[in-house]
């Protein structure tokens, strides 16, 4: 497939793009800074400028395409570009950039007849991650039906983007899949960070004790590219286990007293439910921090 990937130079993108490249896709990385990966065309684009987005999507994906009779259309857009958290830009800028850029991507996709858009939403939409003070989910495991009523600018922008995506999908009928991505972990971060999480599981409370290996995130994007006909869907994206050594029972007793437990859970099963992604697109994460650190459980 010919894929227009926004934000491919970011923390998640720099792992997902190589994964997709290995699957045989042709990729243009639309970002403010280049990825510099052989086989990927870097294109500097300001996504908050609607004209630049349309122009970028109509351009060749490399000099070799000048030899074709016409520039091919993109088969899909994967939209990961964003201000990735609060406290990087002022709140108003975080909201403006994330919402406007996403609107522009969808409007351009509709105008140019691109049949699929996969976009990065976030675990923060559930209101726990960047809450002021203590915030517990309404129930566990947290699935896609859980209320999304956050109070911070980043998560607000992601909820707004989901509304935008759903509206454009209703208008066009194309496939639009939103990924509520949990805390992205790069391979080197296991040795650097996870011993502390084993020692103090409270460090993972804001992430609902979950994580997503950047390589498994690549698998999820690939599964979405392979799966057609779902219309509009959102998916939680996480690894199958928790990010701490504490058992499910220990986490429930210490952190979720009084929180509804909607079904029986395995001893180290993620509290960030991925059943829907497994059922609808075949997502089956293969990495675990326990293997990386030779940890028990």
TrEMBL record:
Pfam families: Epimerase. InterPro entries: Epimerase_deHydtase, NAD(P)-bd_dom_sf. It comes from the Bacteria. SUPFAM superfamilies: NAD(P)-binding Rossmann-fold domains (SSF51735). Residues 4-195 form the NAD-dependent epimerase/dehydratase domain. This is UDP-glucose 4-epimerase.
């Amino acid at each position: 497939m010919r894929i227009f990937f926004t934000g491919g130079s970011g923390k998640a993108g720099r792992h997902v793009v190589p994964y997709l490249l290995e699957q045989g896709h042709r990729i243009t990385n639309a970002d403010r800074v280049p990825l510099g990966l052989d086989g990927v065309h870097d294109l500097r684009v300001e996504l908050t400028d609607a004209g630049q987005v349309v122009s970028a999507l109509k351009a060749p994906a490399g000099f070799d395409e000048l030899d074709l009779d016409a520039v091919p259309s993109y088969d899909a857009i994967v939209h990961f570009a964003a201000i990735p958290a609060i406290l990087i830009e002022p709140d108003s800028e975080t909201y403006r950039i994330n919402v406007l850029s996403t609107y522009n991507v969808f409007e351009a996709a509709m105008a140019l007849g691109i049949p699929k858009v996969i976009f990065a939403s976030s675990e923060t939409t559930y209101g726990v991650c960047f809450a002021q003070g203590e915030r517990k989910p309404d129930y566990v495991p947290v699935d896609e039906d859980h209320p999304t009523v956050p109070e911070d600018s980043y998560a607000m922008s992601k909820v707004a983007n989901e509304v935008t995506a759903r509206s454009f999908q209703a208008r066009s009928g194309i496939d639009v899949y939103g990924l509520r991505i949990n805390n992205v972990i790069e391979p080197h971060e296991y040795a650097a960070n996870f011993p502390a999480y084993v020692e103090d599981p409270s460090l993972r409370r804001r992430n609902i004790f979950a994580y997503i290996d950047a390589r498994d995130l690549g698998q999820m994007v690939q599964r979405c590219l392979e799966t057609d006909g779902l219309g509009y869907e959102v998916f939680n994206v996480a690894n199958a286990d928790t990010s701490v050594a504490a058992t499910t029972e220990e986490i429930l007793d210490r952190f979720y007293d009084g929180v509804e437990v909607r079904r029986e859970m395995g001893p180290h099963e993620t509290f960030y439910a991925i059943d829907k992604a497994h059922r609808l697109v075949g997502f089956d994460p293969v990495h675990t921090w326990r293997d990386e650190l030779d940890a028990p459980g």
